[in-house]
Specification:
The chain has six helices and no strands. With about 100 residues, it is an all-alpha fold. The longest helix has 20 residues, at about 25-45. The radius of gyration is 19 Å and the shape is elongated.
Length: about 100
Amino acid sequence: GIIPFVLFFGSGILSKEDLNNFLWGVIILAMGGLVLGEAVTSSGLLNVIATEIAHTIAYHSLSLWETTCIFSSLILVCTTFVSHTVGAIVVLSIAYAV
């Protein structure tokens, strides 16, 4: 990641003003979402949630519509407390695990 930074700014393709005008908030939000997604995965929380959802779907023989409602509710709760980017990363990880 540092190589393009050094090449663009070191060679003069980009200037100091370009660096100051960069949307750092967007980068921090995206990287924070990736870190939270990795934390959910490495802590085992992803497996716990995915296992519980999979057991609920199998035990009650839920249809695709009902399964979609479960994930929609999970997205609603998750994105109420964190940004939509972080919520999408976490819920997509859970949906993939199920």
